[in-house]
Amino acid sequence: MNEVVAELSERIRSAAAQSKAVRPRGSGSKDFYGYALEGEPLDVRAYAGVVSYEPTELVITARAGTPLAQIEQTLAGGNQMLAFEPLHFGSGATLGGCVAAGFSGPRRAAAGSLRDFVLGAKVLNGQGEALSFGGQVMKNVAGFDLSRVMAGSFGTLGLILEVSLKVLPRPEQELSLRFDMDEAAAIEAVNRWAGQPLPISATCFADGALTLRLSGSALGLAAARKKLGGSPIENAAGFWESVREQRHAAFAGDTLWRLSIHPTTPPLKLPGRQVIEWNGALRWLATEAPAETLFAAARNAGGHATRFRGGAPRTPVMQLEPGVLALQRKLKTALDPQAVFGPHRLHADF
Predict the structure, then answer these.
(1) Residue 304 DSSP SS3
(2) Which pLDDT score, from 0 to 100, does residue 142 have?
(3) Which domain holds residue 244?
(4) Based on the domain organization, do 159 and 183 belong to the same domain?
(5) Is residue 27 situated within a structural domain?
(6) Number of separate domains in the chain
(7) The pLDDT of residue 125
(8) Which residues, in sequence order, are CB contacts of 303 under 8 Å at separation 6+?
(9) Do 167 and 81 contact (CB within 8 A), yes or no?
(10) How far is the C-alpha of 271 from the C-alpha of 268, rounded, in Å?
(11) Using one digit for the tens of pLDDT, what is the confidence trace for 66-121?
């Protein structure tokens, strides 16, 4: 494996010397996100394999090219899981691409985001130098945690080589319940239930129905169902996978927006089909409404909007506050001063 790292490092140094760009790539399952894909692909799939897995320590360390399905299968053997429920968007999704994208699935509101579970990372910077951040325990960082900055960077700050993730035990049982109600009632209900001692691990409102997932012990689920009511749904695992992988019909459309806002925000009354997750904090909207309409709606609700998929080439992906944008520029300059990695992937001007 050292030969693979040496080759990747040499290609990065060569690109920097020639003022050319490269873009880290696994299976390409997240290539739809962002602006243009610029630079020669830097395929990391040859750098694969689980480095260590300690079920008793709740930690797995693996190389970036390792298939995400292999990671999940390995954890299942220890009756454990990636609690943030990563989005695959393809059978070949890799661990490095999963972390670089930073996407979290339906369990995020209950368990935390992908970034919360990153313990450490090894990366190659814009000079082809190998750097290590964090470690394999929760309390291992003093100051700015660069390992977690890699989550959501889409390979624009460096090439992820290896990642250590905290994992959690799989729940004893799960039960999903359906409630027929409108959007306003669903938002009110999930926020009311979120403040109660209920084992809710996921929520989803779509097509006039709210679906709740309960995770825990048999006694806990029975008590929760008695209190909540609702109708049990069949093939619940298939339903939640369709939400996670955006195969549910409500996600259909050329352009999909992701609004991260205050969970108690009333219905936004925007055109298009909508899916609401994370106790109301995540609103997916399949719409052709103007970008500024979405940005303004998210700002007014105390959050931000992102063009997740589709849209015209010049449609902005996101709007950042000046201070946040300045910080991202500084990080880019520090780790990739010659802009070798994925220029213009996340920001139109750098």
Answers:
(1) strand
(2) 52
(3) 173-309
(4) no
(5) yes
(6) 2
(7) 96
(8) 259, 260, 261, 262, 281
(9) yes
(10) 9
(11) 999 999 999 999 999 999 999 999 999 999 999 999 999 999 999 999 999 999 99
